[in-house]
Amino acid sequence: MYTAVEIDLLARYKKAFEKDNPDVRILWVRDSIGVMTAKLLAEEYSPARNLALCRRMHP
Predict the structure, then answer these.
(1) Which domain of life is it from (predicted)?
(2) For a 10 Å CB count at each end of the chain, is N or C smaller?
């Protein structure tokens, strides 16, 4: 799962995801939003990309 979400929040998201998807193993790829965007664009036609976790920032 590609994400730029802060590390301290990932456990909460992982627990909720695994509750609804017990057969899915999460592999985290965490980096800055710019690096994540570049990776997603580079893999636009790749079937390996499955999910990106984003978190909306509030002003």
Answers:
(1) Bacteria
(2) C
